[in-house]
Amino acid sequence: xxxxxxxxxxxxCGMTRAGDVRLASELGVDAVGFVFAEGSPRRLQPxxxxxxxxxxxxxxxxxxxxxxxxxxxxxxxxxxxxxxLLQFHGAEDDAFCKGFGVPYIKGIPMRGLDPTQRxxxxxxxxxxxxxxxxxxxDGHAEGQPGxxxxxxxxxxxxTGLGKPFVLAGGLRPDNVFDAVISTLPWGVDVASGIESAPxxxxxxxxxxxxxxxxxxxxxxx
Length: 221
Ligand SMILES: O=C(O)c1ccccc1NCC(=O)[C@H](O)[C@H](O)COP(=O)(O)O
Fold this sequence. Notes:
- The protein is of the alpha/beta class.
- The protein has seven helices and ten strands.
- The chain has one domain: Alpha-Beta Barrel (TIM Barrel).
- It has an eight-stranded parallel beta barrel with strand order 1-2-3-4-5-6-7-8, surrounded by four helices. The chain has a two-stranded antiparallel sheet with strand order 9-10.
- 40% of the residues are buried.
- It binds ligand LARABZUK.
- Belongs to the TrpF family.
């Protein structure tokens, strides 16, 4: 694969502390994610996310993440937090995902897929989620929660999507360079790989993660 000229976007997911959000902005991170999925150790109440959202610097996107939440819960978050993007990780269909007047990213479980089915997988995704602004390829298995640090086989990333994709799943400062060079994603997303405990981001890991993505962006291949 030949290298393109764009800058790889970075999203830090599962933010729970205002100081972590501020440091992410200072590091030049493009988006931060607030998790509303039931059972997640990073789960926020809308009021908590709203407080962090109101303190955010301009030109940084807030992404609200759901997994099989009710429409009322999604609406409450949209009203209070004003995210610029929604991200769905459950069995929500396209009609549900696009029903809130906010662009959406669809999280796709990638565990155990067949590398020979990359093109077919892309077609299936485009047919199933025509309204998605982007896909986020994640390391977990179908029905499982994300944010668990599981890497999937990058050779299964669908080809010929014609839409941006975000690579996720077990990315860390020590593997994100290879991940970017191998898959040339529109963006990368990380939760546990920049944490000292679930929801508690580690400043040094955050900084090193961003440096490694930038190093990959400058790499000639
Ligand atoms: O982060 C969570 O707790 C979570 C819970 C339920 C569904 C999805 C969740 N996270 C999705 C993300 O976007 C994570 O950033 C992604 O799974 C990568 O996580 P990690 O492998 O820990 O970097």
